[in-house]
TrEMBL record:
Coiled-coil portions: 47-137
Taxonomic source organism: Sesamum indicum
Keywords: Coiled coil
PANTHER family associated with the record: FILAMENT-LIKE PLANT PROTEIN 4, FILAMENT-LIKE PROTEIN (DUF869)
Keyword Coiled coil assigned: yes
InterPro entries listed in its UniProt record: FPP_plant (IPR008587)
Origin organism lineage: Eukaryota, Viridiplantae, Streptophyta, Embryophyta, Tracheophyta
Protein name: Filament-like plant protein 7
Amino acid sequence: MLEMEMKYSIFQADIKGLKNDLNLIKTSVNENLQAERQNDEPLTQELEQSRETIASLENELEMLKESERTTEDQIENLKVINEDLDTQLTVTRAKLNEVLQKLSSLEVELENKRHCCEELEGTCLELQLQLESITSNQHSQENENQEGLLRTGMEITRASVKLAECEKTILKLGNQLKALGSARQLSVVDKVLSIADTKNKKSKPRSSLLDQMISEDNSEVKHLQSPKTKVESKLEANATQVGTPEASLGTKNETKSAKAGTLVIVPIKKRGGGIGLLRKLLLRRKKGSSNSTSIYFGK
């Protein structure tokens, strides 16, 4: 019995020791847990901040994806616009090539017309030279050469009409070149038109050029007359009423009295002086033609 009590007291002492150890362990564990909780608070805050940062980054990523889709759509639209512009550029180049071809053909035609006008001017001057040489001997051969003079005058008239038609065509082609050409080509056309206008003024009529040359040689006229005044004065001084070829075969008086005939411009009857004057005029025309050709092709 005594032994039982001793064992019981020993067990009680062991139990108390174990309880004390357990309390110490619990206290230590609580202290450690409290310390761990205090250490976990900054980590928890960092975790929350990280979650917020992740959410904002996800939003930015969505915005970037949306912006990328918008940019891709814009790129597609730009590609379509670029293709349309390429098509328009191709069509415009084709039209430009057609216009350049038309312009080249018009320039060739204009050059041909200009050469034709120069040839007609030369023909007119040569015919007037022939007419001047014929009229120098008119006192002795007036009745025999009357029909030749009439034919020569008719040839001069026809050549003048052809010259006027060619100059009209040149002006028309020049206007077409103005509508088709570029700025540089327009300046060339303006120079060509100015040359054509100058030639037109020189050819209305040839008698005005003769009057101008006479006035320059004599140095008696300070101001040039207008083309209309020159024509009227020359017609009054040097023009005669010549009848039709049938009427010209009649007598001299019948020829002079014929009213319904063809008007032929006959220069003033000068022996030697008129021929030299026309030769001087022909040389001046050739010199002006060479200068205009060099200006035209120089551009």
